[in-house]
Amino acid sequence: MIEQIAPRLRRAREKKGLSLADLARATGISTSTLSRLESAQRKPSLELLLPITTALGIPLHEIVISPRVVDPRVPQHPTKTDGRVLVPLSRQQGEPRAYKETIPAHDQEPHLTTHTGYLWLYVLRGRLRVNLDDRDFFMGAGEAAEFDCQIPHWFGAAGRGDVEVLSLFGKQGERIHYRTRRD
After folding, report:
1. How would DSSP label each residue in 92-118?
2. Which superfamily is assigned to 2-64 in CATH?
3. pLDDT tens for residues 107-155?
4. Phi, psi of 133, deg, nearest 5
5. Rounded CA gap, 158 and 156, in Å?
6. Does domain 79-179 have CATH number 2.60.120.10?
7. Model's pTM, two decimal places?
8. Are 183 and 139 in contact (CB under 8 A)?
């Protein structure tokens, strides 16, 4: 349990942007004692933890009670649009969002689109055709690409079989990178 409290103390202090010296001034506890608490070299007591949590403005239970362990598996709720099957792989609504997409071989012709965000693609199986502005290239299993979604783009299945792609979508983005063979 001491080993669990120590990193929580450090994370809480750092989250508040305080140095050990700042916390020592606020609590009256020496810097060396605080350092030993954060490195699990000193046994935490209520006498020490109460002034620390008060100075940090957090409830005591955030430091002493283990977080509830939840089932980490992401529920599979696929959606189907225009023959494409999209399976969310991330639970939280924050960014980036992860997906597995299955694109049928008979997918429509390219229709370039733009929007805010940044996209990372990784081909799991099949052959993927990517149109990026005036460039057209193909990717096979094990290849990856990432690009700013404000560049006109489209991707779909190439060849006779479906293609499966892992994708990460986020708002952050700086520049385009290709990690594919040129065809």
Report:
1. SSSSSEEEEEEE-TTPPPP--B--SSE
2. lambda repressor-like DNA-binding domains (1.10.260.40)
3. 667 888 888 888 899 999 999 999 999 899 999 999 999 998 899 999 9
4. 60, -115
5. 7
6. yes
7. 0.58
8. no
